[in-house]
Amino acid sequence: MSILVVAEHDNAALKPAVLNAVTAAVELAGHAGGDVHLLVAGENAGAVAEEAAKIAGVAKVLHSDGAEYAHGLAENLAPLIVKLASGYSHVIAAATSFGKNVMPRAAALLDVQQVSDISAIESADTFVRPIYAGNAMATVRSTDSVKLITIRGTAFDAAAAEGGSAAVENTDGAGDTGLSRFMGQELTKSERPELTTAGIVISGGRGMQSGDNFAMLEKVADKLGAAIGASRAAVDAGFVPNDYQVGQTGKVVAPDLYLAIGISGAIQHLAGMKDSKVIVAINKDEEAPIFQVADYGLVADLFQAVPELEAALDG
Amino acid sequence: MKVLVPIKRVIDANVKVRVKADESGVELTNVKMAMNPFCEIAVEEAVRLKEAGTASEVIVVAAGIAQSQETLRTGLAMGADRAILIQTDTPLEPLAVAKLLKAVVDKEEPGLLLLGKQAIDGDNNQTAQMVSALLGWSQATFASKVAVDGDKLNVTREVDGGLENVNLNMPAVVSVDLRLNEPRYASLPNIMKAKKKPLETVTPEDLGVDVTPRVETVKVSEPPARQAGVKVASVAELVEKLKNEAKVI
Ligand SMILES: Cc1cc2nc3c(=O)[nH]c(=O)nc-3n(C[C@H](O)[C@H](O)[C@H](O)COP(=O)(O)OP(=O)(O)OC[C@H]3O[C@@H](n4cnc5c(N)ncnc54)[C@H](O)[C@@H]3O)c2cc1C
Fold first, then answer.
1. How many CB atoms lie within 10 A of CB A138?
2. Which domains does chain B carry?
3. Which of A271, B184, B203, B208 fits A134 for a cystine, CB–CB 3.0-4.6 Å?
4. Which residues of chain B have pLDDT under 50?
5. Is B89's Cβ below 8 Å from some Cβ in A?
6. By alpha-carbon position, which residue is closest to atom 51 of ligand 1?
7. Where are the beta strands (DSSP E) in B80-198?
8. ipTM of the complex
9. Which of A50, A51, A19, A48 is nearest to A36 (CA)?
10. What is the distance in A from the centroid of ligand 1 to the CA of B81?
């Protein structure tokens, strides 16, 4: 049997986390056997199906076209996954807001206990996943016949976007449940790299004091080609939009370099960034817990240190 | 309209969780427990709907060990009208909880289910989506705004790219995110009053639900520890180290 990856996209292009999910699927196929197939369900998303067919490691792309799949509504996607699942040993998706929304609905319809947000694969049925905000790692074995899994993007490398030549096969949809309607979205516009895949992330916390002060971080980010993140406190205070939040209940990032500016280092924040390769903390409180995970800590007033950092990067 | 709010008892968010030496789980004895923070937000939203006259009754439901009663009392003190405990010593997975909740919903016939988007113990983020699937209802996860509009529900969802607005048929299941509201603290008089509010206890057997776990925990271990690093004295030293030692810029 093969492994099905449910692809997230916006009808124009795949989301980057799909590539991480493909890597996890290829690894699973190494244990369980079979091929890796990708499901692209969308509206006029033919270009996405073509893009998916080029991913290295993908043997087949299932393309389902219909207005009911235009916006990734879980009520419509879950029955389609259920329809296809019987032919697969595993159905997986990245643990993005899309995967978290859709996969448990499909799992329940299949009477399967999903395994969420895995960070390692031990065998075809045994996986490692963080629990308690990453303060413990659980090794779990699924006894369900079909396994539904979401994967932590930062724990699996991105598959090569080019190099594959999978066949694209059209597959019928499962109909429109009519239960809910997409009314619109307010997406944060940014020229910067995407937070979860950026090589460098600079995040601000409550210590930034205002949204305007994030301009200081933007200047540093411009020089480093970095993405900008934030603590929950900074988002709650309205300094930056919700999609900047890094942590247990926000985004999980693991860049080569993470700079935490005016962030105390609560466990819920650490849960989202402690797998970064190099962590830098700038905080005026030398007792701040963030220093316990920082490779390089600078005890300083950020309003002095950040402009200095920006200037030093010119040299 | 009745609103049903499933809530969970978990280790308090401020407690540093410790893995047991025998790797069978995390230490739960003598550890402070509390209502899962996301569940508090769900209770708050339901109580506000009642205060606004949109909801007629707020029912809190917990599934788990006898001590989950404390969590239900907290929900009652926040303003819920009555409570149901589905009592069992079997560790419950999200799918089992969803089946138990479906059985309660079939009996109580609420118009809306409000749940936390995840519990901070298992971090599964599944129960709302699963119960919605089993009921065949609409779902909106990660809500930061909820508004009843006749027989429809408008929800703003926090998604990876920003915000998304959806319109749901009712009855509906909504999972709530951090920024939906700021939960109230229960006042002392309300805590006293909560002791007299009805709390009904049922079992999975009463509800005809098999809660046998599907996923076996092989072990629970410590995460890899990070080496504490060094303090640098200046921005210049920091930049030098990032360039020449860590080689990341
Ligand atoms: C259920 C739940 C889920 C949560 N999920 C998340 C999550 O996903 N992500 C998350 O981040 N948090 C999350 N939290 C919140 C978390 O517990 C902390 O409250 C939050 O991370 C604190 O943000 P902060 O570090 O910016 O603020 P604070 O803890 O207030 O820290 C601010 C820091 O800035 C420093 N500072 C102030 N002024 C300056 C200055 N001029 N120069 C230098 N340093 C300065 C201070 O010394 C302090 O260390 C969650 C909490 C709960 C209960």
1. 24
2. 2-218 (3.40.50.620)
3. A271
4. none
5. no
6. A268
7. 82-87, 112-116, 138-149, 152-159, 162-169, 172-176
8. 0.97
9. A19
10. 35
